[in-house]
Amino acid sequence: KQEVTQIPAALSVPEGENLVLNCSFTDSAIYNLQWFRQDPGKGLTSLLLIQSSQREQTSGRLNASLDKSSGRSTLYIAASQPGDSATYLCAVNRDDKIIFGKGTRLHILP
Amino acid sequence: DVKVTQSSRYLVKRTGEKVFLECVQDMDHENMFWYRQDPGLGLRLIYFSYDVKMKEKGDIPEGYSVSREKKERFSLILESASTNQTSMYLCASSLDLYGYTFGSGTRLTVV
Fold first, then answer.
1. Contacts of B100 in chain A (CB under 8 A)
2. How many C-beta atoms lie closer than 10 Å to residue A96's C-beta?
3. What pLDDT sits at residue B80?
4. Which pLDDT does position A48 carry in this prediction?
5. Chain B partners of A89 at a C-beta cutoff of 8 Å?
6. What is the CA radius of gyration of chain A?
7. What pLDDT, on a 0 to 100 scale, did the predictor assign at position B98?
8. Quick one: which of A34, A43, B45, B74 has the most CB atoms within 10 Å?
9. Per-residue tens of pLDDT for chain B, all 111 residues
10. How far apart are CA A94 and CA A17, in angstroms?
């Protein structure tokens, strides 16, 4: 059974720092991996989607990598800003169902 | 951009009421999903549908049912609402392997 783990559960960093969020999964047979952002009380906003054949995807200050063989993905946020404060979730897609991690709650300190 | 619209942001219902949560997507996606999200438990799949008139149980279907009469609309039904169904409900749609798009969520409180 696929399990997705995100460590740490919470993270606080000063504004301007670069940071990395981690996601690991137990079954490497995935179709794709998706990173989402969730603000308190809101829905999920898709940030990046990496297909299983890809190694990374970039959007602005965000870069997501995928290493299927080791069951790991990272989300790199450059030059963090207070507006980046949110919960970040990763989800792996297999058999057209996605399995979510429980997220990392990120707080950027002004 | 694909848009997934959930009809209500906040709902308060009484125990025993029949509750309908509506979800509409505007990009002809085949697949639609209902999740609930609770602190410490993450997102859990309630029901999903890969086609009109089709539905499949997810991980926690008890106390819920769904309806998909049209491709763009997927409704979640709480047959007799209970306090343990107080939660954030999230609808999503997807097209094959092109990722999921979520609605803005419905915060349901059952009193």
1. 34, 44, 46, 91, 93, 98
2. 14
3. 97
4. 96
5. 43
6. 13
7. 77
8. B74
9. 669 999 899 999 999 999 999 999 998 899 999 999 999 899 999 999 999 988 999 999 999 999 999 999 999 999 999 999 999 999 999 987 678 999 999 999 999
10. 34
Verify whether the Cβ–Cβ distance B48 to A32 is below 8 Å: no
Q: Does B105 contact A at CB distance below 8 Å?
A: yes
Q: What percent of chain A has pLDDT over 90?
A: 86
CA distance B23 to chain A (A): 13
Q: Look at A100 and B97 and tell me if their CB atoms are within 8 Å.
A: no
Contacts of B6 (CB under 8 A, 6+ apart): A43, B21, B22, B23, B89, B90, B91, B103, B104, B105, B106
Range B21-25 contact pairs with CB under 8 angstroms and sequence separation of 24 or more: B21/B75, B21/B76, B21/B77, B21/B78, B21/B89, B21/B91, B21/B106, B21/B108, B22/B73, B22/B75, B23/B73, B23/B74, B23/B75, B23/B76, B23/B91, B23/B103, B24/B72, B24/B73, B25/B72, B25/B74, B25/B93, B25/B101
* Subunit contact B100:A41, Cβ cutoff 8 A: no
Q: For residue A32, which residues of chain B lie inside 8 Å, CB to CB? A: 97, 99
B104 interaction partners in chain A (CB closer than 8 Å): 42-43
